């Protein structure tokens, strides 16, 4: 799940850099692509390994069919880890996504100001794509984050195993939606 979040943030930043001309798209050189993939996995590993070394722990999630961070433990060790996960693995990637797509929209708006004809429809299409991607990101990850925070900081037993199934499935399927949205809303693909 964390790899998918970080990958979406890296992808949004890379798309911003390529579209605004900060870096040039080169279909023969995969160094930048591999760097993004490796950094996504290393960052994710850095945030998923601490429970193996004593900062929080892993345990069954929901009805016990999957494994996740122990959301139900109320000690400071677990609460601090979950709070850090929330900040560094949800809030920061979301800020990067909003920043990257926002700057991309500003760049397209400047270009469409120069060329009035096709620029306006391209700007609207990219705006729709950005809004849909951000909404999908929030729809996939906010329920899961909310359930995790309520289970961690709320009253014991407030989140039942059945109530955590849908948010968990949504979060874990989030990487499927971004490419589909990009393909259907991008004329160049």
Report on the structure:
- Helix content is 70%, strand content 4%.
- The chain is mainly α.
- It has a single domain (1-185), classed as Rhodopsin 7-helix transmembrane proteins (Rhopdopsin 7-helix transmembrane proteins).
- The protein has a two-stranded antiparallel sheet.
- Strand 1 (58-61) and strand 2 form a beta hairpin.
- The longest helix is centred in the middle third of the chain and has 39 residues, at 76-114.
- It is elongated, with a radius of gyration of 19 Å.
- The protein starts with a helix and ends with a helix.
- One of its GO terms (biological process) is phototransduction.
What is the CA-based Rg, rounded? Answer: 19 Å
Q: How much helical structure, as a percent, in the residues?
A: over 70%
Distance between the termini: 26 Å
Provide the number of structural domains.
Answer: 1
| Shape by Cα distribution | elongated
Counting helices, strands and paired strands, the structural category is mainly alpha
CATH fold title: Rhopdopsin 7-helix transmembrane proteins
CATH architecture: Up-down Bundle
The major β-sheet equals: 2 strands, antiparallel
What is the H-and-E element order?
A: HHEEHHHH
Strand sequence of the main sheet, in spatial order? 1-2
Subcellular location: Membrane
Transmembrane segments: 38-58, 78-101, 126-153, 165-185
Domain G-protein coupled receptors family 1 profile: 1-182
Membrane topology: Multi-pass membrane protein
């Amino acid at each position: 799940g964390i790899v998918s979040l970080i990958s979406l943030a890296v992808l949004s930043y890379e798309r911003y850099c390529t579209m605004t001309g900060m870096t040039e798209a080169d279909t023969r050189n995969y160094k930048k692509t591999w760097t993004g993939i490796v950094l996504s996995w290393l960052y994710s590993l850095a945030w998923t390994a601490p429970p193996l070394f004593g900062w929080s722990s892993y345990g069954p999630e929901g009805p016990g069919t999957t494994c996740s961070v122990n959301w139900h433990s109320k000690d400071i060790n677990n609460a601090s880890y979950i709070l850090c996960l929330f900040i560094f693995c949800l809030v920061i990637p979301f800020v990067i996504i909003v920043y990257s797509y926002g700057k991309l929209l500003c760049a397209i708006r400047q270009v469409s100001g120069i060329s009035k004809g096709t620029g306006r429809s391209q700007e609207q299409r990219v705006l729709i794509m950005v809004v849909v991607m951000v909404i999908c990101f929030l729809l996939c990850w906010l329920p899961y984050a909310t359930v995790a925070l309520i289970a961690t900081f709320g009253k014991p037993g407030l989140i039942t195993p059945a109530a955590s199934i849908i948010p968990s499935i949504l979060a874990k399927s989030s990487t499927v939606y971004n490419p589909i949205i990009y393909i259907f809303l991008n004329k160049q693909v």
